[in-house]
Design goal:
By secondary structure, this protein is α/β, with parallel strands linked by helices. The protein has helices at 14-36, 53-60, 73-80, 117-130, 150-162, 165-176; strands at 44-47, 66-70, 87-90, 103-109, 131-142, 189-197, 202-209. It has a single domain (9-209), classed as Rossmann fold, CATH 3.40.50.150. The protein is globular, with a radius of gyration of 16 Å. It binds S-adenosylmethionine.
């Protein structure tokens, strides 16, 4: 285990993160499980895993090669509870200690929208570096279009506003820039599957890595 000194705003809300968001996130966690079921034997890294809620669900459903990475120690303390089979790393997702092509699948769930553009790009670059040839990246995050329910947009806006000024400005930029679509480099990743959840407010996008490491 590799500990880092970095601080995260999530240090202060770690204990309430799951209870507050449980009901909203539960259908999304189940949808991710369903997408990944056919990859049960693969190694999966959850980059910015938070409380590890998603990986715990995978673990309960027979997945064995699970890795959970986050910058916040308090979030990882929760992740460590109730499941000792998941490997946990306290690291910065923009510069992890893993060697190239260490994992079959990298998951990034609700971690892009709240970051500035540079950090978003660095998360994707690092994920690309870590994914094996022909492996996958699964990204779960907000995506608004004309099918997104108005009430959902309002609700998400309120949650993001409460999260703080910088967080909210990054969220607005992410939505304005068409979310993930403007971030993913089409030369490096090919879309395999895309689903919308939460009344079309959340996109789950699975891409396959199409080249060997050469992200610049
Ligand atoms: C909105 S939470 C999402 C947590 C989890 N993926 C989920 O779906 O519930 C964002 C997480 O990203 C983590 N995070 C923020 N910056 C990070 C970084 N540079 N490296 C690793 N984790 C980071 C935070 O500590 C927090 O746990």
């Amino acid at each position: 285990m590799n500990f880092t000194q970095n601080k995260s705003e999530y240090d202060f809300i770690a204990k309430i993160y799951d209870p507050v968001l449980y009901l909203v996130l539960k259908p999304i966690r189940i949808a991710v499980l369903n997408v990944l079921l056919k990859y049960k034997e693969k190694s999966i890294l959850d980059l910015c895993c938070g409380t590890g809620n998603q990986l715990k669900l995978l673990s309960r459903n027979g997945f064995k090669n699970l890795h959970c990475l986050d910058i916040s120690k308090p979030m990882l303390e929760i992740a460590r509870k109730n499941d000792s089979r998941i490997r946990i790393y306290n690291e910065d997702a923009t510069k992890t200690s893993f060697t190239n092509e260490s994992f079959d699948i990298v998951l990034i769930s609700f971690a892009l929208h709240e970051k500035d553009r540079n950090t978003q790009e660095n998360f994707i670059k690092e994920a690309y570096r870590l994914i094996k040839k022909d492996g996958f990246i699964l990204i779960v995050d907000y995506n608004f279009d004309n099918k997104t329910a108005k009430l959902v947009k309002i609700g998400i806006n309120i949650i993001e506003r409460i999260a703080g000024k910088e967080h909210y400005n990054n969220f607005k930029g992410y939505i304005r820039n068409n979310g993930l679509l403007s971030l993913i480099n089409k030369d490096k990743f090919e879309l395999v599957k895309a689903h919308k959840r939460l009344f079309n407010g959340v996109a789950m996008s699975m891409y396959q890595k199409t080249t060997t490491n050469r992200y610049t």
